Amino acid sequence: MSIQALIWRLSMTRCVSNQLILKTCQQYYQVSTATDFLLAFVCQHLKTAKHKLFYQRWSQSGSKPPAFLTFFDQAYPQKLRQIYNPPAILYYAGNLALLQNPTAAVIGSRQCNYYTQQIVQGLVPRLVQNQITTISGLARGADSCCHQVTLDYQGTTIAVIGNSLDYFYPAENRDLQKQIQHLGLVLSEYPPHTRPRPYYFPQRNRIIAGLCDSLIVTQAKKRSGTLITAELALQENRDVWAVPGPITQSLSYGCNQLIASGARPFLDAETFIQALRAQKNI
Questions:
Q1: Which among 66, 82, 91, 94 could disulfide-bond with 185, CB atoms 3.0 to 4.6 Å apart, if both were Cys?
Q2: Cα dihedral sign for 277, 279, 280, 282?
Q3: What tens digit of pLDDT does each residue of 126-135 get?
Q4: How far apart, in whole angstroms, are the C-alpha atoms of residue 211 and residue 160?
Q5: What is the chain's mean pLDDT, rounded?
Q6: Burial class for 49, CB neighbours closer than 10 Å (0-12, 13-18, 19+)
Q7: Residue 280 — very low, low, confident or very high, per pLDDT cuts 50/70/90?
Q8: By C-alpha distance, which of 282, 126, 141, 129 is closest to 219?
Q9: Cis omega (within 30 of 0) for bond into 170
């Protein structure tokens, strides 16, 4: 069995965490490629109550796989390999070549207002002109705005989602997700038939942080998933920019706090693009 087939079949059981898949891959390369040995290794790290379900799903996972990319494939982005707990597998729909482009993640609050819209409308067309691919999480609010404006200006965008590719969340983004699958790239580490769960989205955020070269936060409250993504990006040595806002607005608190903690203030698109071009030598 190839390493790609092993990763895919482990993922399809929906019983094995990403970290355990990576540990099993280590066993594959360093100890044995025997299937019985590898399955026994997995079961050693699963609760006993899950053993029967794991073997049942393993035996059912031999059907034709969806399109996927593994950690060991040449097309897997090197910058994503370097993050903590890199995804062992990414299911995808769209153009994988976009993973090799210069990228800027644009994220913000789901409850964003006209201020985020103004920032995105001013920034994204300039990113498109400079052939920089945008990345976001296809959530309502800032994420959707980023993806839609990118497509409106015939740019390329990558959406990283917190459920499988056969679900559309939120439901109102069904058409937008289909557009991105056709014109850009949609990624998920979750196998088919995986519904969105609240704890999947912080996991999704590490992939956004790992894929981007630079990240911009438009608006964020004091406690939000947006700030989690920004912190992850800082940990991975990405350039993090935050849009300053009025201290009287709760949606500005997170950005102002990021700036106070060392993030670069986003003041205009040109400065941001020049910094990214210098970073990527483009």
A1: 94
A2: positive
A3: 999 999 999 9
A4: 10
A5: 95
A6: exposed
A7: confident
A8: 141
A9: yes
Secondary structure class of 35 (helix, strand, coil): helix
DSSP 3-state of 206: helix
Q: Mean pLDDT across the stretch 210-235?
A: 94
Q: Give Cα separations from 164 to 69, 108, 146, 223, 262 (angstroms).
A: 14, 22, 21, 26, 35
101 pLDDT exceeds 70?
yes
Tokens, residue 122: 């001013």
Find the range with the poorest average confidence among 5-14, 108-117, 154-163: 108-117
Question: Of the candidates 77, 57, 100, 75, which has an alpha carbon nearest to the alpha carbon of residue 192?
Answer: 57
Per the rule left: phi > 0, alpha: psi between -120 and 50, beta: everything else, 60 is alpha
How many residues in the chain? 282
Q: What is the pTM of this model?
A: 0.95
**How high is the pLDDT of residue 65?**
80
Is it the case that residue 228 has pLDDT exceeding 80?
yes
What residue type is 196 in one-letter code? P
**Cβ(25)–Cβ(7) below 8 Å:** yes
Rounded Cα gap, residues 42 and 98, in angstroms: 34
Q: Report the chain's C-alpha Rg in angstroms.
A: 19
Three-state secondary structure call for residue 9 = helix
Strand locations in the chain (E) = 68-70, 89-94, 103-107, 133-136, 157-160, 185-188, 214-217, 239-242, 264-265
